[in-house]
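Supplementary Methods S3. Complex input for the pyroglutamic acid-bound model.
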Amino acid sequence: MKTLTNLLAATALSVAATGVAAEKWDMPLAYAATNFHSENAAMFAECVNGATEVELVTHPSGSLFAGNDIKRAVQTGQAPIGERLISAHQNENPLFGIDSIPFLATSFDAHEKLWEAAGPTIAEILADQNLVYLYSVPWPPQGLYFKKPIESVAEMQGIKFRSYSTATARMAELTGMLPVQVEAAELSQALATGVAESFISSGATGYDRKVWEHLTHFYEVDAWLPRNIVFANADAWNGLDEATRTAMTDCAAEAKTRGLQMSKDYTQFTLDGLKEGGMTVGRAGDALVEELKVIGETMTTEWLESAGDQGAAIVDAYKAMQ
Ligand code: PCA
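Predicted complex, serialized as structure tokens:
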């Protein structure tokens, strides 16, 4: 007579053999549902759900895992798939900060070239961490938010600065500001309570978080374009049949292309939105940009020292594409 365990095992096997068992995949996201990355991920999920037996469900705004916990959750299999701002993990590997070297790649086109040079290495590093790289999408160029006009680095002294990565925290230190790491989902609250009074980000995040309620100025600096990566847990991925993996890879390729266009479209839309909210939006003054470039050089030197030959090879390959 079969034991219950044997029976259950037999059922599971037969379901697996038919390949039709719907498998729910929760996908934690750090950013608001209305943000273009999250909307793109929702479309990716729709694509996967239409083409496979996987039921992909997105969880925006850090509702399933806080942004900083998403990568670990996917590595350890607590979530089978997720999206994360990769530069937030530069402490694990300097190469995760390749997209945050100040003034190295300051436009969408330049950034895509940088990613062409860096992407395969990043995917390998992720593979060593039990992660399968699926697609990635850049944020719009990064600029500075303040609650008063700022024309020089000297005027930044002592300002409480919300950081989202190693590079943003270092930039704060080098400008004399006081960095505090805050997820975008908690940004409005941090500004409302005075935990932070300035930050670097895209127009997109300022718009998503309605920062005109607390701040007055956005300076376009185009310091860099950081990237969100969608990755799967390697064990969960390997547990899928080949047809499912192919379908998901195809959906990921579409999401990459679509997401890039969404990011471009969202750039001007959100800068206009900040203006409508009452903020002064415009390019940072030349004197300020020159000072920031000097700080950028320090950060570039530091990054190259930490990233060694592999980092230098990527930067050289990128420069050769210019
Ligand atoms: N928005 C994200 C990262 C970069 C960006 O533009 C944030 O501020 O958290």
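The chain is about 50% helix and 15% strand. Residues 168 and 234 are 30 Å apart (CA to CA).
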